[in-house]
Specification:
This protein is α/β, with parallel strands linked by helices. It has a single domain, classed as Response regulator (Rossmann fold). 41% of the residues lie in helices and 17% in strands. The protein has a 5-stranded parallel beta sheet with strand order 2-1-3-4-5, with helices on both faces.
Length: 135
């Protein structure tokens, strides 16, 4: 197998405006082999997604300019971007908020605070599902 191409590092776009959360997530996910990119407000997401072509988007809800619900709706209504898995990670924990996230097209909704192992398992599951069978 030494002739195989190197494994492509997976790219995650982290849409989060809290510097402490960004720093912790970058450290945690980078150590697990992911390339992490960050934007801090919802209005920058679509352009960044087109630029870096992430394998997964981790999306906060409470963001400047465009909130995460709006961003998720824009991503999932764009045929070129709709297949990228979106994992909402938010401090909003009410049932109505979680339902809104799913209704807007999120593939997974997790609440803060979260367990690293659960986050990692959901990331891996969503990326594998997006890759589809036989990939």
């Amino acid at each position: 197998m030494s002739g195989d191409a190197p494994v492509k590092k997976r790219r995650i776009l982290l849409v989060e405006d809290e510097p402490n959360v960004v720093e912790l997530m970058e450290i945690f996910l980078s150590r697990r082999g992911y390339d992490i990119f960050n934007v801090v407000d919802g209005s920058l997401v679509i352009d960044k997604v087109r630029e870096i072509k992430p394998d997964l988007i981790i999306l906060d809800i409470m963001l400047p300019k465009l909130n995460g619900f709006e961003v998720c709706g824009l991503l999932k209504s764009d045929p070129a971007l709709m297949r990228i898995p979106v994992l909402i990670l938010s401090a909003l924990v009410q049932k109505t908020e979680i339902e809104m996230g799913i209704r807007m097209g999120a593939d997974q909704y997790m609440t803060k605070p979260f367990h690293n192992a659960e986050l990692l398992a959901n990331i891996e599951k969503l990326i594998a599902k997006a890759d589809g069978p036989g990939v």
